[in-house]
Amino acid sequence: MNLRSIMCVAACLWAAATMAQKVQQSTVCNADGTVTFRYENPNAKEVQVDVQFAGRNPMQKDANGVWTATLGPAAPDMYPYCFVVDGVSVMDPLCPQYFPNEGFKNSLLEIPAKNGALAHDIKNVPHGKVEYIHYYSQSLKGTNNAIVYLPPAYDDKKNANKRYPVFYLISGTTDTEEVYYKVGRMNYILDNLLAEGKAKEMIIVLPYGNPTKLLPAPPQGGMMGMGMGDVFGSDLTKDLMPYVESHYRTINDRDHRAIGGFSRGGNQGLSCGLTNLDKFSYLCSYSSFTSTTLPGGVYDNIADTNSKIHLFWLGVGTDDFLYGTARDYMEFLDKKGIRSVKEYTHDKYGHTWMNAKYFLDKTMRLLFNPEASEEAMKNGQKALAATGKEEAFTPAVMARLFPRAVVSPEYKSDGVTFRISAPNAQKVQLEMDNMPEPYAMEKDADGVWSIDIKGQEDQVFKYCFIIDGMKVADPSNMFLSPDKGFKYSIHENPASTYSLLSMGDIPHGVVSYDLNKNTATYYPPTTKNVDELPVILLIPGDDDTMESWFKVGGANAVADKMLAEGKTNPYIITTDTSLKDRVVGVMPASINKTWNSRRLALVNMLQDKPTKVVKVDSFLNKNK
Which of 216, 235, 391, 593 has the most CB atoms at less than 10 Å from its CB? Predict the structure, then answer.
């Protein structure tokens, strides 16, 4: 049985074991390519399922209160979906996979292909590590975050001196830096290509494309912090790139750097790449375009521009709402005489992550391979001719796709306000994991429910809304708890004690996710040999994943701050039980009910600066 099969079986067993309700498996991929969706809610008046391959469709309720719809057939791939219950979009409470986003909350459906035929399949091959990094950005005047993928052989001792090229890969509008990992599966695509000898080893860096959103008071001027100029480009070249190049074994020249992205990320990647050809020589745009009036004469100094670009790759679906503008940009390049490779799709539902994954697989085979890239560039075709029927990309289209969201949570000097739009609801409550009972919320004339909470400014907690008895994550909060079942939202005031955003310019450690062992490990910012550091073992709770202690409990943020203040010693903090012979402290989630109390218990342990190795076998046996 391969790794993918094991994961599928585990997910099914988990769903069956945790659901005391009638629905034990919410999605079933049928032999004819259709998918059956099930959702249990006997009190709902109307339920629809919204899935990317079929749009929004009604579901039918049976006598047991189970809503069902069968849609398709659809091609094997990954598709975002959600249920729309009496007008409110909700994630599938039984699905462990989700779509990270600043706004909408979707689950992910996988329709498997036979024999591991998809580029993003999780195969039984060596997997690279995925590391979450934080760094102080002078451009942002605050702490920013990114994700770094390291190829499978990066940590091999025989490769200790090997250096790698770097691909900066940016997600789209409203996406977080996690999307090219959890939806785009950049790591598994490259793992598979490397195992087949079809790509060069590389480090991949996933920046956050909307960094001004992390500020306590984001600037006026619309998306991407336009009122502050090109903060993203400045942060990337002046803050993130220096961090990456000082912390990882990178090759630091233009011939070994690539940049690209999907949608807004493609625009950012092309803009940053074309205006920094002294830093990048591989440029990739997936379902996007950029300005035709960039500074620096890049479109006028044709010979110089062509000589500096090893690969200029542009892909778009002919059914994408951005196709017209992307095609126009391709034609603009042709007329200027700037060489490029163009790829079109017709069968991946337009502006979707099915296209983003497909394009990524195509380009990864060419990156940092000058011979293959040059061959592709020589064979590049002209842009498709305009038909006159292309959809125009206008501010009205943007407003329709990304309507102004309700602000929630809104942090104030004396508390926090939570809000959700549910005009058809009869009763809405706020549930918090640190309070015994939910709070009643009040509805305004626009159908927006709200509540002001005092005295929680310095606490971290999970919360959700209860709409007529149905739990719903906050659709306006980008921070989701990575639980096995229902995904709660996370509250943490940006100005609180252990918020990374409030820490200022201090050194940060790294949280490394080992996808071969399914473990998460924090490595502190220290010059000491990490193999000699003592270990604090984190035990996740029953509903937690390997991410929970870091995403919700903020174990890395606690350690960073306490180290900066001299209140503790450097420790490895991990869920990896194979390090038990070096464990000096065990921190189980089960002994504390709330995440705030778990965090405080970790603070106390770190303050004690434990040094004596403890035996953990008996404890681990109790927590199996």
Answer: 235
Task: Say if strands 428-432 and 461-467 run parallel, antiparallel, or are unpaired.
Answer: antiparallel
Q: Which of 403, 425, 450, 419 is nearest to 85 (CA)?
A: 425
DSSP 101: B
User: Which 8-state DSSP code applies to residue 250?
Assistant: B
Residue spans of beta strands (DSSP E) within 62-196: 66-71, 77-85, 88-90, 98-99, 106-111, 129-137, 142-150, 166-170
Domain ranges of the chain: 3-116, 129-378, 410-491, 511-622
* Rounded average pLDDT over 548-575: 97
- What six digits make up the tokens of 561? 């701050």
Percent of the chain, pLDDT > 90? 83
Instruction: Tell me the one-letter amino acid at 591.
Output: I
E strands present in 376-457: 410-412, 415-421, 428-432, 439-440, 442-443, 448-453
Kindly report, residue by residue over 327-345, the tens digit of the pLDDT.
999 999 999 999 999 999 9
Crossing angle, helix 186-195 and helix 353-364, to 10 degrees?
A: 30
CA distance 504 to 388: 52
Query: Do the Cβ atoms of 510 and 501 come closer than 8 Å?
Result: no
Q: Alpha carbon of 220 to those of 11, 143, 232, 493, 622: distances in Å?
A: 43, 19, 15, 21, 53
Options 3.30.70.1170, 2.60.40.10, 3.40.50.1820, 3.10.310.40; CATH for 410-491 is: 2.60.40.10
Tokens of 335: 């007329």
Least confident of 108-117, 228-237, 469-478, 552-561: 228-237
Residue given tokens 């750097």 in the structure block: 257
CATH number 3.40.50.1820 given to 129-378: yes
Q: What band does 218 get if pLDDT is binned at 50, 70 and 90?
A: low
Which residue carries 């099930």 as its tokens? 38
pLDDT at 193 over 90: yes
